[in-house]
């Protein structure tokens, strides 16, 4: 589907796809080193950046260039030597382009991992081979599962410090896979690495001939970014109505938006929510070009056969495949603001292109990520808490379950007073149905 | 356990978008969100390649209707004449409304002082922020990309600025999914960066794919330049060369376009877009490292300027 030009071919970058991924790891698991090595070995660190890092490292009194200075972009981060906020990195190989959400590993920054994971197709969870699966690892796995990141890579780092032993890796991989599988993480790939020595990051390791799987980069290059869309419920949130009212286009009335899920075809019957009015797709404009079919995540303009009342915030769906509308939302939320979220609080709820007034009716439970236990009636959620909430909205919303669609099942809670983003919401069941971890291990065994 | 074999087949899914298509779709989504949620948005337009790509994306996002935004240019008084000519041509061609804030006016009124090093880049902040306040713009599109600089890597797509236009990196709103929160109080505004996830190479590949016309200074040409702080600067009335600096004619091109006093040229024989792309793909220097003097002032130069309201 990509349009290649002579220029793209010349640069050897034709027909590449884009993978968004996030990294998560505890403070000393070597996340910066892994990110540094991915950037460095894929030749994405350029001479002047490296010189700046060398210069800054020297002025701080260290002989070796500190690769963390590449990624810690804020004055306060460099001063404290920690990563405070999500940073986005870009690198490319001839096979694919990458957007990396580099998220801090501190316990108090769960919201940052949620931020990074919300747009990620893949999450890399780092563990230190010497420590194995720790509380923080379980927390990272749980966030990836909760956000329904389609692919999870377990990078067992510092293999050089455990003599590259297969048994150490196998035990960690087995424990993690059982735990994450139980949470419903659909695909887990475990890779033994040493970010410092470069084993299995970009180049295959000569120290672990027992491992036959891909390197981290190889896996990032081949993991699928798009799925079979034919089974997805098609959804188009209307962003903007395009009405030129010019001599050339006196009657043009197009509904612009980015397809949130599935595919739309010319001739298809559609229903507009929440009004329930129906029409047929008369045409699809893909940024100025008429097409017969369009799919997520294309930004398009839809033309309908009938002149019906549609505005920003409405949802166009295939007739016969409409989500139920409701004023009662049950969801898992991650609280991201410094002020707490309390029962009875009046908020704004932003779902796709629609923002409505809402009230927090109930906070039935707060989740402890370490052991996934539920604490009933916490009364409030504070920063970085994850909990179940029941919200009543002033107008009906057409929410899908987050499990069906990350885009139409997600929402924000916003403070109406000052616009602060309070919470990230995911409608419906919080975790996928638990698999029996034992059968998972017994049936499939290990293929490394 | 791994499903890599099954995976590779799926990569050729008919529904896979190329990276340029994905970036384009995301940027158009951002333009339309702003059009849907704000009263008075404006596009910062310098005549540089990033703002030219922004304008192209905006034209596509609202076609066949005109862009529902006006343009704003901060004229440092030291702009490349070719770029100003390009700016005026584009404005006329698409029937756009252009606001211009002049740094020179502020210097003439004594509000701003010429710096000893002659660069006017940091002086843009005051005219920019005053124009935003005066015109009551509530969303200001900028062409900033996160790959440009490490402080920019921390920037959100929607970046809330207070009534002094200040950026506070520690008080940024988390940005979740594609749900951009643009709420702001009167007097505050939101900076919006639709090209956040693009790299320099993406921009050039897109320019090639879409056949976008650029000011000619982006392509190799002969020009009288002189060397200052390791960069080739264009000689001119703005203040160069000084004593001890000698002008020579070299085959060069520009990777970025900004104030003449701090935008360096690179030696290049890339006269076509194909050659430019090959050159960039092979370059071992970042765009800003190669051509911007002002970012070298300190380790946090960009962060400090952004805090004050720079774009």
UniProtKB/TrEMBL annotation, chain A:
<protein>
    <submittedName>
        <fullName>GTP-binding protein</fullName>
    </submittedName>
</protein>
Automatic annotation (TrEMBL), chain B:
<keyword id="KW-0808">Transferase</keyword>
<protein>
    <submittedName>
        <fullName>Sulfate adenylyltransferase subunit CysD</fullName>
        <ecNumber>2.7.7.4</ecNumber>
    </submittedName>
</protein>
<keyword id="KW-0548">Nucleotidyltransferase</keyword>
